[in-house]
Write a structure and sequence with these properties.
- The structure is a single chain.
- This protein has about 1150 residues and is α+β, with helices and mostly antiparallel strands.
- The chain is built from 41 helices and 38 strands.
- The protein has a 10-stranded mixed beta sheet with strand order 20-17-16-29-28-27-26-25-24-23, with helices on both faces.
- It is an enzyme of class 7 (translocase).
């Protein structure tokens, strides 16, 4: 059964971080006849929720999982049995069918958008080898075994094994930000046996068989063999190009397709589109169950009453000659009364809420504040049924690359010889003379050349810019059409930014050879022989290069983090104090810094060191450690040149957005595939991590070490709390949630000292195991910020599910921009995709799509806050108006000897009540009502906690509304029963029968309900007034017309001659004015009491808004920032980010292969 539910998407399969099935698949290259005999999946992918076969079962399952719909299906079916129904046979089943059709149409329209986007991807074009030529082919038509040609900047259409490329030795560069969030370029390389297949004719002659592992979700492993002429060559992850990755800085690659469609590793990391239901909907579902039992109780009471009447009252048996059917009669009576009272559960609620949500979704789509003009990208509500969930989010899980950042590095500032330069000088940093007569401030970059020409730090400036142009592993790419246009291939965007910065300052790096580099200094070429490269790694936090200049001098150029460079400087560095001051200023701006230094090396010292380095390079055991020790020997007595500052461009207003969301009580966790140092740097830049936070970094390599680390940190925090403190008392309750049957408290830990938890992917893998996950989650909930680094797409989803399933009442939101974020987005209660960039696939699978992270602020605080408030009012008012009317039917039944007779005419009263007379008032409340303005919601983000705490709608609120309905219905019915009893004669001689009495009661109920709408509304606009007044006017105009025409036309004959009684009875007009005011007066007094005596926070904010009281909080915020500035500066040295994010190891071997003076094959 589980397998069937999973197959049609009604149940989510359990996922693990990695799963590699046992077995192999055989692929015949350039042998289509043999390949066709094997059955592999095609390359077409679908991210839609439904298809033509699963739509009906999945939709019906979702539609009838709402208990109200299931109840109405039952009552509608029973109602078709005419002898049981006291009302029209089709009064329930037809409206339910209409609602089902409307809902189905909405689902089809929304899911069709996903299928349209899928078709766009499936119809992309790639070149496939046909014979000895490459022909264009659609992605969806690619099959396993095809040889494809992928060109620069294109995405890979499937998982493919590289055969050759335009670069030396079959190298290529790829960007995998869609898979793991990293923007660093990664290197893949063909095996030497196929690297020389650089023409279609050559690759068409390849007769080979690939034996590979079966499709699996492990992004970082791959095992296969390539059999050529009975020889086997191993194929590993370095030869695999994954679907979703992008070819960069490589003109073309030839590759064999090995996995297609939903068997690619990217799609194996995705999950089927889930069926999501909001927290409010779940509450409504449970309350409908309660109402059903209330309804069943009412039906049982009335059926028992009728049974007693049959047994004790001889009138029915003797005069009406009725017979008691015993138990069967009792059962049929129960069904009759269920049908009579069935509208106690409002059928109109479902359709009203759906239409309101659809309208609120359109408001999001048309909001110009959420429109990104640069890319012509509006916000999109792809799943409007989740709109109120936006107002209740407790946790945000965000990707980093492309979501918080722009993937753009810019060289912004430099300190050269103690003098500061900037691309753009801030107003407060302009050059001026201080009280000591010294010139202080920042110069613009253009002054660097002027200072050099004037003899100010001439040699230092030359060495500084030469270092930028020489000390790196960048490869230049010259445009054949425009030889002066040089672009840079770099594994690290930081390095590319620095080399590009040197280019803009007159030091152009344009040629790399296996043993040298050539730069142009003001148009004059200078060649440097590259002797050795000491590569960057996370332990060294620096890289250096040993070069021989044209004059024969040997120099060491080095760049790295300030902490490691400063401790290796010689004692006579006069620029050190000024450079340190500049570094602190750069760090305060959130910039990523590097310190640059050099050293002249005597020839003899270099020869001696070279022997040590060569010995280390040939060491079998611990080679990297030996190389690091060798580099340590020569990286001493350095001369400081200065420092650079690079801005890792954040999306607009990211720090302010995160700060505001955290003020709103939302916890922000960053889940990224990027490396730890980069993620921490961004954490500081976007103000997720602040200098006053205690950082806990978990980089353990085993299950035991991870568990021990987390337990120790948790024990230390517990020990730091006072036994009598409120936090400790709260913790005791929290522990009961952990070790008992309860879930974690989502609000725990918010008042503790700010802490940040940073954990890498390997440790996280252990932390998510059953015996550790509770400890990990408990520690994470105590932290104000959590950053998970180097995580796979499925690990992201597992973290989201961990919080979703184990934190009581918590609503999760995941936001990302790449295919690696799809699983996380689908796992969360609400998924948001960043749209507007080609190839970014998260928006396709998301519930909402926005173009910038900053738009999340208004989407949650304003649209979410309003939607939660509006939907809450729609639900409560719909329950209220139906229960009030149909409880009157119950009181009537108690007073008519349990006859089962209806008090109201079916079409003009029962059916028209929700469809006509009270249709618009709940709708306009749900669409136009604002409990505060958007500006107020943005100014007071703390008001967002109204939704988090379920203030406007919860079980307690629901019970109070039900009690209110009982009170109102009781007063209305017995007031009219007292004023005009059964058998009274009205003006004109018309007796008061049940139909006339019902009209009087019905009209009073309608006026009461409309006045209640007025009390509930927070704002009155034109549509509100028209809907409220128009509903009453429509009834008093249309109903008399229907009561006159209907009986003459042969239907609703029970309304014959009721108009005269309706218009001419003074007590009727007196009653419909008095009764509604009387029953609502209690509500008015109660509302006044709550606002005046026991006001909530939002009541006070409403008064502030109404009276337009000035907000002085910005001054206090400015003061708070000023007070913390000193502490931030003091701690910034310990937390300053450095600008390295390149791959560790292998860079020297790579660049030694390149000779950019040689012409590349055209393919």
């Amino acid at each position: 059964m589980n397998e069937f539910l999973i197959s049609i998407g009604l149940k989510q399969p359990e996922i693990s971080a990695t799963f590699v099935p046992i077995g192999t698949r055989t692929i015949y290259v350039n042998d289509p006849i043999k390949q066709r005999q094997q059955e592999f999946l095609n390359n077409s992918v679908s991210t839609g929720k439904y298809n033509i076969f699963t739509f009906i079962p999945k939709f019906l399952f979702e539609f009838f999982s709402k208990y109200a719909n299931l109840f109405f299906l039952f009552t509608g079916t029973v109602q078709l049995i005419g002898q049981l129904s006291p009302t029209s046979r089709y009064g329930t089943i037809i409206p339910l069918s209409i609602i089902a059709l409307i809902t189905a149409s909405k689902e089809i329209v929304e899911d069709n958008k996903r299928h349209i986007q899928d078709r766009t991807v499936n119809t992309r074009v790639v070149k496939v080898l046909r014979g000895s030529f490459f022909e264009e082919c659609l992605w969806k038509d690619i099959v396993v075994g095809d040889v494809v040609k992928v060109e620069n900047s294109s995405y890979f259409p499937a998982d493919i094994i590289i055969l050759s490329s335009s670069e030396p030795d079959g190298l290529c560069f790829i960007e995998t930000s869609n898979l793991d969030g990293e923007t660093n370029l990664k290197i893949r390389q063909a095996i030497p046996e196929t690297a020389d297949l650089v023409s279609p004719e050559a690759v068409s002659r390849l007769d080979a068989i690939v034996k590979s592992e079966l499709p699996n979700n492990s992004l970082y492993t791959f095992d296969a063999t390539l059999n050529i002429r009975d020889k086997k060559y191993p194929i590993g992850p370095n030869q695999l190009l994954l679907r979703g990755a992008q070819l960069k800085n490589t003109k073309w690659v030839y590759a064999i397709v090995v996995f297609t469609g939903h068997e690619t590793k990217l799609m194996m990391n995705s999950t089927t589109t889930p069926l999501k239901r909001t927290k409010v909907e779940n509450m409504v579902n449970s309350e409908i169950i309660l109402l059903f039992f209330v309804l069943l109780g009412m039906a049982l009471i009335c059926a028992f009453g009728q049974l007693l009447a049959d047994l004790t009252n001889p009138f029915d048996a003797e005069i009406l000659m009725s017979t008691n059917g015993g138990f069967f009669s009792f059962i049929t009576n129960v069904l009759t009364f269920i049908i009579l009272f069935n509208n106690l559960i409002p059928l109109s609620l479902i359709v009203t809420v759906e239409i309101v949500k659809l309208t609120l979704g359109q408001f999001i789509n048309s909001d110009l504040d959420l429109y990104y003009e640069v890319n012509d990208t509006p916000a999109t509500a792809k799943t409007s049924s989740l709109v109120e969930e936006l107002g209740q989010v407790d946790f945000i899980f965000s990707d980093k690359t492309g979501t918080l950042t722009r993937n753009i590095m810019e060289f912004k500032m430099a300190s050269i010889g103690g003098i500061a330069y900037a691309e753009q000088v801030p107003d407060d940093k302009r050059i001026h003379v201080d009280e000591n007569g010294r010139e202080v401030g920042y110069h613009v970059f253009s002054r660097i050349q002027q200072h050099k020409d004037k003899g100010i730090n001439t040699q230092v400036i030359n060495d500084f810019l030469t270092l930028l142009a020489v000390c790196h592993t960048v490869i230049p790419e010259i445009d054949d059409a425009n030889p002066t246009d040089v672009t840079f291939q770099a594994s690290s965007p930081d390095e590319a930014a620095l080399v590009d910065g040197a280019k803009s300052l007159g030091y152009l790096f344009h040629t790399r050879k296996p043993k040298s580099v050539i730069i142009a200094v003001n148009g004059e070429d200078q060649e440097f022989e590259v002797l050795n490269i000491n590569e960057f790694n996370s332990t060294r936090k620096r890289m250096s290069i040993v070069v021989r200049a044209a004059d024969g001098r040997i120099r060491l150029f080095i760049k790295g983090a300030d902490t490691v460079i400063f401790e290796r400087l010689s004692f006579d560095n006069m620029f050190l104090p000024a450079t340190q001051q500049h570094l602190e200023e750069y760090a305060n701006e959130g910039l990523r810094t590097l310190v640059l230094a050099y050293r002249d090396i005597p020839e003899s010292e270099y020869r001696d060191w070279l022997k040590v380095h060569q010995a280390a390079a040939t060491t079998i055991n611990n080679r990297q450690e030996a190389l690091d020790n060798a580099a340590e020997m020569i990286e001493t007595d350095l001369q400081l040149l200065g420092a650079t500052a690079i801005e890792d461009k954040l999306q607009d207003d990211v720090p302010d957005t995160i700060h505001t969301l955290m003020e709103a009580g939302i916890r922000v966790w960053v889940l990224t595939g990027d490396r730890q140092e980069t993620a921490i740097n961004i954490g500081f830049s976007c103000k997720l991590i602040t200098p006053d936070m205690l950082m806990m970094i978990c980089n353990e390599t085993t299950h035991f070490e991870t568990k021990e680390f987390l337990q120790q940190r948790l024990a230390q925090l517990k020990a730091s709390l006072d036994v009598g403190s409120s936090a400790f008392n709260k913790w005791k309750g929290f522990e009961r949630g952990v070790y008992g049957d309860y879930k974690f408290d989502k609000d725990f830990g918010v008042d503790m000292e700010p802490m940040a938890l940073i954990i890498d992917g390997k440790s996280l893998n252990f932390a998510l195991e059953d015996d550790v996950k509770d400890t990990f989650l408990e520690l994470a909930l105590l932290c104000k910020a959590v950053v998970c680094c180097r995580v796979s797409p499925l690990q992201k989803a597992l973290v989201v599910k961990l919080v979703k399933q184990n934190v009581g009442g918590a609503i999760t939101l995941a936001i990302g921009d790449g295919a690696n974020d799809v699983s996380m987005i689908q796992a969360a209660h609400v998924g948001i995709g960043i749209s507007g960039q080609e190839g970014l696939q998260a928006a396709r699978s998301a519930d909402f799509a926005i173009a910038q992270f900053k738009y999340l602020r208004k989407l949650l605080l304003v649209h979410g806050g309003w939607a939660y408030s509006r939907i809450s009012k729609v639900i409560t008012i719909c329950f209220y108006k139906n229960i009030t009317l149909y409880l009157i039917q119950f009181w009537f039944t108690l007073n008519n000897n349990f006859s089962g007779m209806t008090l109201f005419e079916t079409w003009s009263s029962v059916s028209a009540y929700n469809v006509l007379w009270t249709l618009l008032p709940p709708f306009v409340l749900g669409v136009f009502d604002q409990y505060v303005t958007s500006r107020t919601l943005d100014s007071y983000p703390q008001m967002y906690r109204i939704g988090q705490n379920d203030t406007f709608y919860n079980h307690r609120v629901f019970i109070f509304w039900i009690i209110n309905s009982f009170f109102h219905s009781l007063v209305i019915f017995y007031f009219w029963a007292f004023v005009i009893g059964s058998g009274d004669v009205l003006i004109g001689g018309r007796d008061v029968d049940n139909w006339v009495f019902g009209i009087f009661v019905y009209a009073s109920t309608l006026v009461t309900v409309i006045i209640k709408h007025c009390l509930v509304a927070d704002i009155f606009v034109g549509a509100t007034i028209i809907a409220f007044a128009g509903s009453l006017a429509a009834y008093f105009v249309v109903f008399p017309m229907y009561a006159f025409i209907g009986p003459l036309a042969g239907f609703s004959k029970e309304l014959y001659n009721t108009n005269f009684a309706f218009f001419t009875t003074p007590s009727f007009w007196f009653g419909i004015l008095l009764v509604p005011l009387l029953v609502n007066f209690r509500d008015f007094v109660w509302k006044f009491y709550k606002r005046s005596v026991t006001p909530q926070a939002y009541h006070i904010v409403q008064e502030i808004q109404k009276l337009n009281i000035a907000d002085h909080r910005p001054r206090r915020e400015w003061l708070r920032k000023a007070v913390h500035k000193v502490r931030m500066n003091q701690r910034m040295k310990q937390t300053r980010g450095y600008a390295f994010s390149q791959n560790e190891g292998g860079q020297e071997d790579l660049i030694r292969l390149y000779d950019t003076t040689l012409r590349k094959p055209r393919g």
